[in-house]
Amino acid sequence: MNKPGVYICGGCGMGQALDTAKLSKLAAGECKAAVSRVHPFLCSPEGVEQIRQDFAAGAVDAAVIAACSPRVKQEAFRLDGQAIIERVNIREHVAWCQKPNDEDTQMMAEDYLRMGVVRARKTEPPEPLAEPVSRTLLVVGGGMTGITAALEAAEAGYQVVLVEKEAQLGGFVATLKKRFPVLAPYTEPASDGIAEKISAVTAHPRIRVFTSAKITRTDGQPGMFDVTVAQPSGCVAPETPGSAEEHSLKAVLLRAGAIVLATGWKPYDAARLGHLGYGLTPDVVTNVELERMAAAGAITRPSDGRPVESVLFVQCAGSRDKDHLPYCSSVCCMATLKQATYIREQNPEARVYIIYKDLRTPGQYEKFYRAAQDHPLNFLTKGEVAGVEKGPDGQLAVTVTGSLLGEKIQLNVDLVVLAAGMVPNAADGEAIRALEEATVRSVKAETAEQRADAARAAEQLKHHAGTQILNLTYRQGPDLPVLRYGFPDSHFICFPYETRRTGIYAAGAVRAPMDSSAAQEDALGAALKAIQAVELAARGRAVHPRAGDITYPAFFLQRCTQCKRCTEECPFGTLDEDEKGTPKPNPYRCRRCGICLGACPERIVSFKNYSVDMIASMIKAIEVPEEDEDKPRALVFMCENDAYPALDIAGMNRLRYDASVRVIPLRCLGSLNIVWIADALSRGIDGVLLVGCKYGDDYQCHFTRGSELANQRLENVKETLERLQLEPERLQLTQLAIDEAARLPALIEGFMDRLRKAGPNPYKGM
Ligand code: SF4
Ligand code: SF4
After folding, report:
1. What is the mean pLDDT of residues 423-445?
2. What number of other Cβ atoms are within 10 A of residue 317's Cβ?
């Protein structure tokens, strides 16, 4: 056990609001701190030097710094980077939000101090993981995104392996006639520029390219992914066991430190757009089919090869449609405007009709839209295509309702082009289709039961509908888990390239619908994340959101009952299993969220500075007043990522709230072990409030599923409450975003009102 010193700051108004001398006395007396000092400005060079000297003299081996929030002054209090430092937030969470020089305010600071000393005493010095890692990056997909990611990483000095399933690099962009305008005045389509990039990649000394190749297996973890790449070969001995297809493949085993998944997209299945005339005649084509026609030469009527004199584009063909793709693919409007220029180049007199729900041309693309709109032979109108039928002279008769002309109109045209959306090039059809259908059912569900059914089906499918491209040997499946529409992505607000597999970053249209310009930016971002991943792995440190953390979970497996909760609940697939079901950690995959710690009923998962025992001891350190003192106590578990900083912001804004609460930050609400709730309630604490990130499809949880898992675990706590014969009102979980600090005082007051109504916890004093 450590011998912590306590250092109390009297600056920033703390000295005026609190009796710091009394706090210091408590530290030296009841808390048995090895040293207890008060400094008027602890973060000043002299204040920090005093702490250093105590360490150097061997007077202390851990420091409890009772001052500002741990989110600030990190550099000042880092000392040598190795010292055990426990920050006790008596500024934002006490002095700035409570009545100055008040008994309850002082009691709050004292409890926080007690909790901090207990935690510092139990913290062990962490040691980073230290295995040799590979800094080679694997880029999967040789389209614009993959090529850009490979080039950028190679230019930054990293070795890159680029794997492409087709015989040629270039992907979809290489099939285009032109791309969207990229230079001022943004009124003309541009050259695709892909040929130059392909040459640069193939000539680059740090990039190794595999074409006609697929990945048959990905083992391992960040810093040490062992990847099997299969390429066609005729040199396998005929007597080798395996199928003819396997015989024709040669396997190459590679080691990579991180992976960029850039597998692009495919067009939405037009066979499902029969209501817009697809399949009626060959003269109804998709935007991708028209692009191929344009790239190959003249655009003609496919049915009879006649020149095209009139074309009608149907926007959002199957997009923003609950029966098809509920989302906007963001590129189809621009693709149509670009293709209208192809028609006009070929036949300046051609009539072009564009029927849209909205035309979405963000940023500089608006100028391209205006240029198209200004052309006298272009007819753009908001409207709904009600039907496409065979018309006179081999033309197509298109009925449009709800147009800006205000009436039903019929247009006879040579060609109908369906602006179909983008589907991530992630899985082969069936699984994605089933996922889409489950999603559609969920969107259309009328009752809560139907919604729950569809959500369950979608959740199950997500784990089977991922890429099937990397063929991961993870216990949780070979695919990247996907979001609602089949895009692999873990945290859409803060970490856009993240997937739920650490060290694997999605970029380009496989991550979200986007055009090739956006995909190039995305490639750069994902390449940087991959570089960060290998560099952090090389130092044994976590990637974001706990970037730089050197702690990792240790499993005391002698007591493991093989219940598999940790292996199932870890959102990042960190834990594989042996044949008996005992977890096999892959610590470099770990994001240090502590969800496994919360999941484990045997309480055998712990970090050097975060454990079930440590938090339980902090709970025990809270002084619970007797019933007749009329001072209720509530414990608040707060997610460190959003809720805790929101409480800091409340402090900065001097928002006052009930002084009966005691806050314990958690790495993630998912790291909540329900034994802490039982501990708190059986000690006489009147209630427990959990504040975590938003969950559900539009989740904001930094560990994707943590707050949702905490909510599920609360179901089990209800049994504990029943056993203790306590009211369910004593427990509440609330979702809160970082920008909702203003909600906190009312939230806390509301919870305390509930507890006051429920009356004192009968376990007080027991
Ligand atoms: S649950 Fe979190 S802490 Fe535990 S192994 Fe998984 S990523 Fe690591
Ligand atoms: S949750 Fe705990 S007991 Fe269950 S398998 Fe994991 S380590 Fe073992």
Report:
1. 68
2. 28
Taking CA atoms only, the protein residue closest to ligand 2 atom 6 is 566
**Strand, coil or helix: 688:** strand
| 625 and 746 both lie in a single domain | yes
* 555-560 average pLDDT score: 96
Q: Best substitution site from 491, 541, 557, 590 to test ligand 1's pocket, by max atoms within 8 Å of Cβ?
A: 590
Q: Which residue did the predictor score with more confidence, 441 or 553?
A: 553
Same domain, 383 and 435: no
Residues 419 and 432 occupy one common structural domain: no
Q: Which domain holds residue 675?
A: 611-766
Atom of ligand 2 nearest to the CA of 562: 5
Ligand 2 center to 626 CA (angstroms): 38
- Domain with residue 639: its CATH number is 3.40.50
Buried b (16+ CB within 10 A) or exposed e, 399-412: ebebbeeeeeeebe
Q: How far is the CA of 585 from the centre of ligand 1 (A)?
A: 9
Quick one: which of 28, 31, 13, 24 has its CA closest to 116? 31
Q: Judge if 343 and 252 occupy the same domain.
A: no
What's the pLDDT score for residue 244?
A: 55
557, 575, 673, best to mutate for ligand 1 pocket (most atoms within 8 Å of CB): 575
d(CA 717, CA 707): 15
Residue 472: name the closest of 501, 497, 496, 499 by CA: 501
Task: Tell me, yes or no, whether 43 and 162 share the same domain.
Answer: no
6 forms beta bridges with 36, 64
- pLDDT of 646-703, one tens digit each? 999 999 999 999 999 999 999 999 999 999 999 999 999 999 999 999 988 788 899 9
For residues 433 and 307, state if they share a domain.
no
* Residue 224 CB contacts under 8 Å (≥ 6 apart), including other chains: 131, 133, 134, 255, 257, 588
Residue in 606, 600, 608 with CA at minimum distance from that of residue 566: 600
Q: Grade residue 611 by pLDDT with cuts at 50, 70 and 90.
A: very high
Rounded mean pLDDT of the chain? 91
For residue 431, pLDDT over 70 is answered with no
For residues 689 and 706, state if they share a domain.
Answer: yes
> Best of 580, 605, 607 to mutate for ligand 2, by most ligand atoms within 8 A of CB?
605
Which residue matches tokens 């019933």?
Answer: 627
In the prediction, which pLDDT does 245 show? 56
Give the tokens for residue 164.
Answer: 């492409």
CATH number of the structural domain spanning residue 404: 3.50.50.60
Residue-wise pLDDT for 461-503, tens only, equals 666 656 679 999 998 888 888 877 888 876 666 788 999 999 9
475 and 352 together in one domain: no
Closest to 382 (Cα-Cα) out of 355, 405, 361: 355
Looking at residue 400, its pLDDT comes to 95
Residues 6 or more apart from 170 whose CB is under 8 A from it?
142, 143, 144, 147, 194, 195, 198
Residue 291 in contact with residue 298, Cβ under 8 Å?
no
Domain boundary at 109, 125, 141, which?
125
Structure tokens that stand for 369 in this block = 């839209």
Which residues does residue 251 pair with via DSSP β-bridges, in sequence order?
230
Whether 39 maps to a domain, the answer reads yes
Residue 591 lies in a domain: no
Residue 297 corresponds to which tokens in the numbers above?
């030469």
Minimal-distance CA residue to ligand 1 atom 2: 593
Name the percent of the chain lying above pLDDT 70. Answer: 94
pTM here is 0.91
pLDDT per position as a tens digit, 258-270: 999 999 999 999 9
Question: Among the three residues 539, 562, 593, which one is the final residue of a domain in this structure?
Answer: 539
Structural domain tally of the chain?
5
Q: How far is CA 318 from CA 419, 465, 578, in A?
A: 8, 21, 45
Is 586 domain-assigned? Answer: no
Is position 12 within any domain? Answer: yes
